[in-house]
């Protein structure tokens, strides 16, 4: 049974936590009494970096913006860069916060937009924002006097200063580190504690028995692009009671072969929903492609649609986990009956 959610992320099963989160984000965080006025040293992809408190941040994509908004730091955000593949910010739990800051560009992150904005702080991921090829790296920004913060989950690919954490742990680390940089560590600790509690509840309620084989389909026809071990959907799948059929690949987002997908025999397929190709079109491709039309998940119409911002490093991965956990509990194939 296909689960295509038309409501904003965090529908009925998670309404109360989201209402709480939105209510909190609507109030600016109170800078802690006695918080440092000079510098604080924080880990950035394995490198110890001295930060002064920023006032004019530029954030790239929803995950970066949401982390700042979740900590009540909207007043420190000048604006955001949001490529068209991202879902509309009006669908975000933090839509009101987006409305308070400037939309800077719908292009990829680049040095010009950062300089033109007068930014003193940039939040992005490595290879999903910062890029050697596009000439915007932490080192380049350091030379310009602009501080930078990289998503810890993306450090797996970062050359020179590797840091390796499980994806959800990367989210928690980012919130704690941003809390230190902005002097709102108490707020960060409370936010992380709430997210950990919600994650633990899903894990405790996961279906019993063998994990359900799951495949995430991002895109691609000649070869599928998917989520391996080092990105949030892998944690979403395993915490909810599934097993990522390519979870043994020690990579982030990657291409695999259709033969590997067939061999994995997924009983549920997650469709990552973004860009100009609707989820329904991706599902139709999987139903008609000779590579995939006989997969167990396709035959049973077991598709789950995951919003883009529920699959990248940011607070909404917790919403995605809760929704996928509910899906597995309600719609996972009856393996005992099939046997």
Biggest sheet features = 6 strands, parallel
Give Rg in angstroms: 20 Å
**By helix and strand content, what is the structural category?**
alpha/beta
Gap between N and C termini: 20 Å
- Beta-strand residue fraction: 15-25%
What does the overall shape look like? globular
Structure description:
By secondary structure, this protein is α/β, with parallel strands linked by helices. Helices cover 37% and strands 19% of the residues. The chain has 13 helices and 14 strands. The chain has helices at 15-25, 61-70, 95-100, 111-116, 138-144, 167-182, 185-204, 232-240, 258-264, 279-288, 296-299, 316-331, 335-338, and strands at residues 39-44, 47-52, 57-60, 77-81, 102-105, 121-126, 129-130, 147-150, 212-217, 225-227, 242-244, 253-255, 268-273, 303-307. Strands 3, 4, 5, 6, 7 and 8 form a six-stranded parallel β-sheet that branches. Helix 6 runs antiparallel to helix 7, helix 7 runs parallel beside helix 12 (316-331) and helix 8 (232-240) packs parallel to helix 12. The longest helix is centred in the middle third of the chain and has 20 residues, at 185-204. The radius of gyration is 20 Å and the shape is globular.
């Amino acid at each position: 049974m296909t689960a295509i959610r038309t409501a904003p992320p965090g529908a009925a099963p998670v309404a109360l936590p989201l209402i709480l989160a939105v209510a909190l984000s609507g109030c600016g965080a109170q800078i802690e009494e006695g918080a440092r006025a000079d510098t604080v040293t924080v880990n950035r992809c394995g490198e110890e970096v001295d930060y002064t408190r920023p006032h004019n941040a530029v954030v790239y994509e929803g995950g970066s913006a949401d982390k700042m908004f979740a900590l009540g730091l909207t007043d420190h955000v000048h604006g955001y860069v949001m490529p068209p593949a991202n879902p509309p910010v009006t669908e975000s739990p933090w839509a009101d916060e987006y409305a308070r800051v400037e939309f800077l560009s719908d292009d990829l992150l680049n040095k010009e937009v950062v300089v033109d904005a007068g930014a003193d702080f940039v939040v992005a991921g490595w290879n999903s924002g910062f890029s050697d090829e596009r000439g915007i790296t932490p080192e380049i920004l350091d030379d310009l006097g602009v501080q930078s913060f990289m998503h810890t989950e993306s450090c797996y690919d970062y050359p020179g200063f590797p840091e390796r954490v499980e994806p959800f742990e990367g989210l928690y680390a980012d919130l704690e580190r941003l809390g230190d940089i902005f002097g709102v560590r108490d707020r960060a600790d409370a936010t992380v504690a709430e997210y950990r509690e919600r994650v633990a509840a899903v894990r405790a309620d996961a279906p019993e028995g063998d994990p359900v084989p799951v495949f995430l389909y991002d895109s691609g026809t000649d070869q599928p692009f998917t989520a391996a071990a080092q990105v949030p959907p892998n944690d979403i799948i395993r915490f909810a009671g599934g097993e990522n059929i390519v979870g043994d690949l020690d990579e982030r987002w990657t291409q695999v072969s259709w033969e590997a997908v067939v061999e994995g025999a997924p009983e549920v397929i997650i469709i990552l929903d973004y860009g100009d190709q609707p989820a329904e079109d991706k599902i139709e491709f999987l139903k008609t492609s000779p590579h995939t039309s006989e997969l167990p998940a396709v035959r049973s119409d077991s598709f789950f649609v995951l919003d883009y911002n529920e699959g990248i490093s940011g607070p909404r991965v917790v919403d995605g986990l809760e929704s996928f956990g509910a899906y597995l509990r309600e719609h996972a194939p009856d393996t005992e009956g099939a046997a």
